[in-house]
Amino acid sequence: MKKSLLHTPVLRVLAALGPVIALFSAGVGLSAQTDARKIFQDNRDNVMILYVRNHGTPTAHGSAFIAEYNNKKYLITNYHVISVAPMYLDPVQGEEGDEIENLSVVRVNEINDIAILTFPGIEERKGIRLESHGASEGETVFALGYPAVPDSRDLKLTITDGLVSNSELVVESYGNETEYIQISTALNSGNSGGPILGAEGKLVGMATASYRFMQSTNLAVPANAIIEEIKNIDDYPRNESQARRELTERFDSIARNVRENYRHRFGNFYAPSYKLEIYPRVLQASGRVFHAHALAVGRNYNQLEEVIRDVALHVKEDEFYYYIMYLDYFSNFESSENIGELIFRTGSNPMVASELYLSARFYFMMRRQAELENGQKFEYRSYAIRSVEFSDNYRKAVANIDVTISQKTFPLKLNFKYEWGNYYLMPSYDYFEN
């Protein structure tokens, strides 16, 4: 994994860029400017603001666009933009308009960071024609979206231009290799999910991420990857063989994260609907962890190791693992910010807080099932599926597996729910009691 790329959800990367002002000299001729104006005017009604809200209040936003493929329209954005929270759309650039409440998620691909949605009346709206496009180095591209400007509440559709720097950039993240288009087009927080268009107005890809400490190095999901997801919309499990294959692929993804000790990633595999459901209780746990950390820091310990030991004495075992997930998460971000402040701010984010909490519960559950003593290290070796029972037309599954670690082999029961085109974990044990 390249630590400079903060992936899944990648919006965290864009938010981390901060307000940076730089001056560049670019050889953009009159024809390119003319193309930019036309592209902006032709597509301004296709690009929308996608808000994420918590208890009715918008807490974040990204961009989305309507695309047309095989005479059918879809709303396209990044998976990390929608993740777990209820959504609504502000349909037109900065103008007053009816909010679209009845959004439906059709399919997502977490690894490629793609989300496909729909809503009533989408077929009556304009859309960007989606067709196979092979980007080429040196090609001029334009990004449309709604970036957030610090200290301003004025959200308007913007356009920026740049070049395709690398048409086939392969990035490894958490054991998965993903292909992106590397572009020099400026992207900022809020651009996520917006279209990347070529000089002729064709869709090249979708804005998704930036490298934190590199200039003009941004990533777009290729248009061809979006097309593949649309083609797979109706490819849900129709028989036990297909269901077993998809469930095994999910197990393999979880196993990779366990093997590489990406403990803070376990929560990503839980159903988005469940993450939102448990958030009120997660918020309480986050408050207790923050309080324990603040008290430990107040005792004037000089080393983080001393703070960690003190926190362990003042919270329950499962909540201590929650604290550890915070430390794992922020160590990957190489952040110099105060840990307490980060815990406080992250606790108010339903997606991240619930994922870290569920990561802690999953790790705690495995340790308890393995009957490990305190201090014993969990060294994963392999897993084997003993049995799987499907129900609800293969939309639900109960799997019994054997997990082998360095010390022993132990049984584990896992519940799954098919949602948004994927099998997601559901609680298999009582996740709020020791």
Q: Could you characterize the architecture of this molecule?
A:
The protein is of the alpha+beta class. It folds into two domains: 221 residues, Thrombin, subunit H (Beta Barrel), CATH 2.40.10.120; 187 residues, no CATH class. Helices cover 32% and strands 30% of the residues. The protein has ten helices and 17 strands. The strands form three sheets. Strands 1, 2, 3, 4, 5, 6 and 7 form a seven-stranded mixed β-sheet that branches. Strands 8-9-10-13-12-11 form a six-stranded antiparallel barrel. Strand 14 and strand 15 form a beta hairpin. The chain is globular, with a radius of gyration of 22 Å. The N terminus is likely disordered.
